[in-house]
Amino acid sequence: MAGKTMAPTAQGEHLAKVTFGIKDTAMPYWGEWMPESMRWDAIRFLMGSFMMGKPAKTESVYNDGMIASNYLTASSQVFIDEGHTIPTDRGQELYTTYCSTCHGEAGLGNGPGTVGNASGGPAPFPRDMGEAYIFWRTNEGVPESIMYPFQWVMSSEEMWAVTLYVDGMTSSSQGGN
Known about the structure:
By secondary structure, the protein is mainly α. Helices cover 41% and strands 0% of the residues. The chain has two domains: 8-51, no CATH class; 63-170, Cytochrome Bc1 Complex, Chain D, domain 2, CATH 1.10.760. Helix 6 packs across helix 7 (156-170).
């Protein structure tokens, strides 16, 4: 954060948000397990990314559908066959809570959280990403971007519900870019 400093009251407000989270948003609470020094690191990341700017990923990182090898066989059917359930009726609700702020209602990268964001918005969702790719990015995040891993915020069942919702949103018949 070279060149700019935060006012002490802003620092305290941000520490409270990182420590206690923000109810009904994607911002989890980190105070129970994250040491204070790491929470200050998170504040520096947030300030650098959202207020002062971080290189935005305005181009998709989809890369022709290439995914990490440990996600190659990921599928909702395998997850169900392993004895899990997916709350598919909650996919849109979870997307609205955790994703639409940046990605927008239709996945175009124009959500209300991108207005005034120094890093800009994410790239629009590509068409036909497929379940394995969507689950991977939801679980692991996107490196060198402001999309963090949701594995710490949502259960696997919830991530699969969001995955199926986004998969439906980006299928050729529904749209996508």
